[in-house]
Specification:
The chain has 83 residues and is an alpha+beta fold. The chain is built from four helices and four strands, in the order H-E-E-H-E-E-H-H.
Length: 83
């Protein structure tokens, strides 16, 4: 995946958080799902087990598992909070 697509991906993800036991958890609004999954990642959300439909979008845990197929710089795209 090229840098432009990765940059667009980070812009389309509404929120993210590194969570203990859940890895990289992301929230994506429904209006952005088609672009994220069909055009950038090119995967079928219905076949991906970590998607959970919520009120305004979807929640995905262990998103780093998906991203690892595209880049090794996941923490550069989604930095961990240093608390």
């Amino acid at each position: 995946m090229n840098f432009k697509k990765l940059k667009l991906l980070t812009e389309l993800i509404d929120q993210y958080e590194w969570q203990m036991g859940h890895g990289l958890a992301v929230w994506i609004e429904y209006s952005n799902c088609t672009t994220v999954f069909d055009k950038i990642l090119e995967i079928d959300t219905e076949r991906f087990p970590n998607c959970l439909a919520e009120r305004t979008g979807i929640y995905i845990d262990h998103f780093e598992d998906i991203l690892s197929f595209y880049t090794n710089d996941i923490e550069k795209l989604f930095p961990k909070d240093e608390d």
